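Example 3.
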Amino acid sequence: MATKRRVSRLSPERRRADIMTAAREVFSEKGFNEAVMSEIAERAGVVEGSIYRYFKNKRDLLFCVSESWFEEMISTDEPTLAAVTGTWNRLRFIIHRHLMAIKTHPDLSRLVFQHLRPDPEYRKTKLFALNKAYTNRVVELVREGVENGEIRPDVSPSLVRDMIFGAIEHRTWAYLRNEGGYDPDTLADQLTDLVSFGLRKKDQTDEIARAVEMLEGAIARLQPAAGAS
Amino acid sequence: MATKRRVSRLSPERRRADIMTAAREVFSEKGFNEAVMSEIAERAGVVEGSIYRYFKNKRDLLFCVSESWFEEMISTDEPTLAAVTGTWNRLRFIIHRHLMAIKTHPDLSRLVFQHLRPDPEYRKTKLFALNKAYTNRVVELVREGVENGEIRPDVSPSLVRDMIFGAIEHRTWAYLRNEGGYDPDTLADQLTDLVSFGLRKKDQTDEIARAVEMLEGAIARLQPAAGAS
Amino acid sequence: MATKRRVSRLSPERRRADIMTAAREVFSEKGFNEAVMSEIAERAGVVEGSIYRYFKNKRDLLFCVSESWFEEMISTDEPTLAAVTGTWNRLRFIIHRHLMAIKTHPDLSRLVFQHLRPDPEYRKTKLFALNKAYTNRVVELVREGVENGEIRPDVSPSLVRDMIFGAIEHRTWAYLRNEGGYDPDTLADQLTDLVSFGLRKKDQTDEIARAVEMLEGAIARLQPAAGAS
Amino acid sequence: MATKRRVSRLSPERRRADIMTAAREVFSEKGFNEAVMSEIAERAGVVEGSIYRYFKNKRDLLFCVSESWFEEMISTDEPTLAAVTGTWNRLRFIIHRHLMAIKTHPDLSRLVFQHLRPDPEYRKTKLFALNKAYTNRVVELVREGVENGEIRPDVSPSLVRDMIFGAIEHRTWAYLRNEGGYDPDTLADQLTDLVSFGLRKKDQTDEIARAVEMLEGAIARLQPAAGAS
DNA sequence: AATGAATGAGGATTCATTCAT
DNA sequence: AATGAATGAATCCTCATTCAT
């Protein structure tokens, strides 16, 4: 009627990005089931129906949001990881980054663990591929370690991967339920140590090796600061 | 009207058990959200309302079902575990049993992982306590191993626990999504080995020599930066 | 089994009284719909089924509770009212008592107004009879007042009754919704005065003269219309 | 499946009006608790869910229905009331209209008395405001009467209001329970008389005044008919 | 491309009342 | 007389998705 129709026509990319930003917020705040499409639409400044032009459905939207988060993480990590040398340093770095990612985005982490990964179609999704790329850094690390003789050749690289990410996930569940925190630095050290040396008590040589290992870690942590000066 | 009121009066214990059995079936087959109370009631041979005399609500019912499953597992394991001697044997036994439990009851496992553990109230539930008892066997094992000198004293027992159950869980997600199986025997062996020996190659004299060299170089490089501050 | 069944066997009268006391509490606290039989049973120290030995159903229970309240009120008022002399004093007394009753038992009052009086069967209930007796004191008072010449003979006693109790009820709705109080003394005075003297200013000779003039004019204007029909 | 999705898109105003019309019918026929949303939806030619786009919930719907009824009454009365002159005529008019409203819409009246007015939130509702406007006409009338000397200045206008509407309500409860009728004309006369003159027997002047008053009423009732010819 | 009204399936839960024990 | 387990009907509301405009 007399009411003017204010149709803001943004570029599709921008529109899509707005929706994803809004969705990430709402999913993070409310969780998947409690998040409602109309609120996402409202925050994105679009109408409910418009979301369906860009995303197949609510689940698809969640997948896309999570994918973009993974892509962010991977692209952030990549350059830094490239600068870290030494098998054990790199391993600790990956562990530390993952602990940080969960600490910074517990809500998104929980969404992935609870709603995406259990999805029967999960394996066919892009998120699965991204996650694979993300976790495969450990697999490759192990392979390289085997090649250069630092890692014994009879371990399953994928089992190492599952062990590391499984341990982290298990360890952080309390935090994901908002029940207390954890210190990524300490935990990364402990976990790296445990994975690399195992439980068994060993002879002297190993003790020395471990001491060296700790020194290496300390230096690695100092290097960026020193380089920045 | 013409409907006869057939009131069968069973012992409360029996009635409760019937409902739980039916619920376990339906939850396993359908998952939590898709399970409907009326079907559980029907299979249990009761009327919907009767379920609510024994269980507060659907979620409570799921918790109770899961608890009884855990109790079963714990009471089944206990005598056998008591008969297994040797730290590493016992560790392998626990790992193997857990792998078997998931393999035998993937649906219940998924329910716990997906619906119960993420519950904000989880920590206050009996299921949490049971799960703690269940996983604590690893913690105790580590402590004993430390005491008798088989395990090095500087590992965090709870981190070992998280590592083991995390690794198992991560490893079995594909199976939980019905995407292929795994061999509990092999996997238990691999995991026990990995946890106990770690990744490192045993003889590392050369490695150490090289590492020491690197450290010396690194320290030399750091000294100017430290001096500049 | 080994559990001893503690069946306390009280006199039926006592049992009935306990239930009514509990019911009055629960109804008062929760209102009719929100009151649940199991809570009444619990507070009365009986089992749900037992209530139905003494009362036909929930509604019947509410009626009985209300009846006993009315009986209390009537028997409390009676002796005092007998001691009050003079039509206007007695009228004021009745009004004041009713205002006090509502002030003391707003919850019971609301139950009667909201759930009992609108009942299609209300007129057949004992509560109706009691209420009639309760309010009829006004009717009788008016009749007596007419007889002794204090009240003009052309008023409908029942209309006076409805006016008084209606006015009180209307006036107290805010209080019944827990929205503020009222002062029974002042209000009783005002109401008695208003009912007895009405709205009109006393000396109206001039008014009458003016009215008569208007009437003459009106009739003059009407005559043509009447003639036209 | 094979069900065709027939989407009829009406103007929101029309749709809302349809729902309210249907709701008024169903609420009137069944009462609040017995009215079911699905029947309202069906009669309105919409789907249940659609009702919730226009009304927050069942209670809100009832409030809106009642509000529209009040608005109708007020807007119907207004022009006629403006045409009626003289304090006592106007008073009788208001009383008469209210008696007629209840007589015409006993079911809606009962809904208001039983479900809306007792609502703890009632005072915050639009219905309360409307009702206040509706009944305030009496308050204003009294104030005007005091100003022009027809009404004694020491009465509480709001008490007069409560007395009138309370009396009407009390008087009509039997009818609201479907137990017999009443004659609005007679009752309006009686009530006006009682309110204006009170109970007390007075001297001759008042008798004359009353006779004049009755004549005025008779003429007032004749005027519309005469004017319409 | 955008709108946003309409769809419509879907299910947990409550609780007064009964009646076998 | 007392118990209390069993009954089972009954319904409001949500919200992802569609599609006419």
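Chain A has two domains: 10-55, 58-228. The two ends of chain A are 65 Å apart (CA to CA).
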